[in-house]
Structure formats: structure tokens, C-alpha cells
Write a structure and sequence with these properties.
The protein has 3 domains: 2-128, Response regulator (Rossmann fold), CATH 3.40.50.2300; 147-311, P-loop containing nucleotide triphosphate hydrolases (Rossmann fold, 3-Layer(aba) Sandwich), CATH 3.40.50; 314-447, Orthogonal Bundle (Helicase, Ruva Protein, domain 3), CATH 1.10.8.60. Helix 4 (96-105) links the parallel strand 7 and strand 8. It is 43% helix and 14% strand. The chain has a 6-stranded mixed beta sheet with strand order 1-3-2-4-7-8, sandwiched between helices. The chain has a 5-stranded parallel beta sheet with strand order 10-11-14-9-15. The protein has helices at residues 22-34, 45-54, 71-81, 96-105, 117-128, 147-159, 176-185, 207-212, 229-232, 248-260, 286-291, 297-303, 320-331, 343-351, 357-371, 379-382, 403-421, 426-433, 437-447; strands spanning 2-4, 14-18, 38-42, 59-63, 65-66, 69-70, 87-91, 109-112, 166-169, 194-198, 237-241, 262-263, 272-273, 277-282, 306-309, 340-341, 376-377. The protein has 452 residues and is α/β, with parallel strands linked by helices. The protein contains 19 helices and 17 strands.
Length: 452
Amino acid sequence: MRRAERGAAADAPRVLVVDDEPDIRELLELTLVKMGLGVVAVGSIAEAKDRLKAERYDLCLTDMRLGDGEGLELVRHIGAAASDLPVAVITAYGSAENAVAALKAGAFDYVSKPVGLEQLRTLVRSALALPERAEAPGRQRLIGGSPALAQVRAMIAKLARTQAPVYISGESGSGKELAARLIHENGARRERPFVPVNCGAIPENLMESEFFGYKKGAFTGAAEDRDGFFQAANGGTLFLDEVADLPLAMQVKLLRAIQERRVRKVGATQEEAVDVRIICATHQKLAGLVASGKFRQDLFYRLNVIELAMPPLRDCRADIPDLAEAVLSRLAPAGAPKPKLTPAALEQLSRYEFPGNIRELENILERALALSSAAEIDVADLRLAPVEAVEGEVAPDESGAPLPEYLDSLERKAILDALAKTEFNRTAAAKLLGITFRQLRYRMQRLGIKEE
């Protein structure tokens, strides 16, 4: 066991290196010392545990396979005993399973053998840039005090302290992009770009050039070199919204970019390294799409390292008053008094199902504010469908139809009513329903509603 802190200032960050190969241990040690860091290098899990018990470190870097056990054991030990200490692992080249297993166990990030020194330096800088303590984001961004949202805040605090890919699931309008931004803003990459991408809004023939960029002359109209989403997010976070909409051909290219951490511009002959954290989201069930062959299993395996489930608004009914107040404050004209909801209007909102979640609540209140001529917003201004059932009860189905057919009939009626009110303007109807234009088009096709 040898301690090497030569050249490091007394207050320099300290790194614990764990590797049973002396040559690699020496390489890692010299690289970190040149970065001005204090380094302690040991060759076994047992030695590492002794050091962790006796001294404080700012980062642990461990090999996956050691003489007296697996690096995952040390990752889990640190997670239980010193959760604020980031730990990164060194995995065998091309061992995606080991990398994913390490991230699932709580590792900050991983680097593959043979160790690329520039990638190692980037990893170390990111880990040392983490806030000292993991704190849940405040209520000013993620509004509400319900138990479901408290769990989301705690999960975001944990995810912010790792570089693991995150899959955010949840219904449309439930705040998936906000959660992704909070993970980014509370993590090591907070000073770098956050690049959101709606995968469903990009034409298939432009996807590769949009994601990876292109070289001048690569195709007609390519008048100059252009960076793609990966280059724009370099050093930061790339948020892939509605990732389930990616065609299979693009899924293959995305998988390679994630695994190799390198991309090739359209028309280029060389790949370039990119340092990007991937967070993705979709309102669809990715596991079901994998089973039906519409989404690649290997890509799902790499994206779904850690899942964050955003609760629907109907599961956070206690938060509706706070949410409504925040929305109305934002919508109020500058200098004007903040609009208020009558108790009856607030009661109806609290009993409404909100199929469009928070986005639908925002649309309802924006419409009500525009239509209300009084100082307060009342039930009539909300223009909600009558609430037939209170929470915990099931509305009666007088037709006797099976539940799926009954629900389809309700959905069909709501869509037709919205289309009638907007004179079949689908964009306006989608906004009225609190869903996206793409979702409306899909639902119309599924329910057999013809476009006029």
C-alpha cells in the first residue's frame, strides 16, 4: 500500500484509487497527481475499506475485477457508508453489462479499458464538480408537498449525483422535462448546456444530420459544417423527449453513440469524442414497445439504467391549490392583481381527473382567465365536464359496455366536442384537451375519427 500525494496542495481534493494491477495503478496515480490531486492507491477491496474508514476522500476510482472481490461490492459499500462520495469504475472494453450494472449500483460513471486519459480527466473533473451534499430541489420549481412529489424530489437529488442514463416515465403533461432539467441543474454538469430534443418532431430523413451534425458538401444544401445535438450538448445533458418515436434505424446509431461516446458527422470520415449525459422520456411504455419489436432491446437496456416515474396529477390532488396559485400568478398581467379561484371552482378542479395532467391545468386556467370578467374565476369559467364521481368511486356505466369500450366512448366524445368547439382545428382542439397535436392525431386514428 503506497500513498502518493506528491505535488498536491494540502487542501487539494483527494482520490482513492483501487486496482490490483501495479502498472495501471501507477498510470492512474501519475495522471491524477499531474491534475494537482492527492492520491492514495491500494490494491484490494479490504485495503480500500480500511482507508475509507480512516480518511476522507473526494472521489473513489475502482477497477471492476479485483483479487479479493468485485468492484460492485465497493460501490455498494460506499453507497451505504458514504453516499456523498462519488465512485467511478473501470470496466473491461466493450463490457456494456458491467457498465450498466455499476451505474445501477450507484456508481457516478465508468471508464473502459484501455483507459483513455482524456476521458478519465473529464470524468474526474465532473465528479469533483458535484455539490458537497445531495439536496432535493426546492418547491419553487417542483410545486407541491404530496408524498408522491416528495419521493420524486428525493430521487432527483440522488440522480443528480451520478452520470447514469435516466429514463423518465409518466403521462403527457406530468412534468418530465422539468424533472430532467432539475437533474441537470443539481448535478456536476449544471454549468454546461442542457439540450432538449423532441424526437417525434424531427423528419426521419433529417435525423442523423440533426443528431450528429454534417460536413460541408455532405448533401445538397449543406453549405457549411454544422454541429448536431450531441456536439451542442457536449459536456452537458442531452434530453431526448418522446424517445419511443425514434425509428429503428436511428435507434441503432443512437446506441452506438451512447456506447462508444463518439459520433461521426454526416459526410465525415473520422469520429469525434463527445461527453454527453443522456436523459430520455416518453409517455409510452418502452417495455411494451420492446416486446412488440418497435424499440430495440439493447437500446432500452442502455437508456433504462435508472427509471424516474413522474406521478399523474390525479395522484397529487392535494397539490392542486398550490399549482393553481402558481399558474395564475405567472399568467397575471404585470401590475394587475393576482386572479383567484372561488372555493367552488377550486373544489371542482380538485375532483377533476386531469388526463392532460399539469399541462392541462395550465391550459384550463389560461382559458378561464381569458373568459372570466369578474375578479374571481368561478366554476362556469373553468368549462370542465361535469364530475360524475368523487375520488375513490367509479362512475356508473349505464350502457353495460366493457370498460375499454366505455373509456373509448368517453375519449371519442371529448375529442369530438373539442373539434366541434374549434371548428375542426386540430391544433386548437389539442390545446383545449391539454394534449399535443401528435397525441391528438394518434388518438383520432386509433378511435377511427376521420379528419375533415
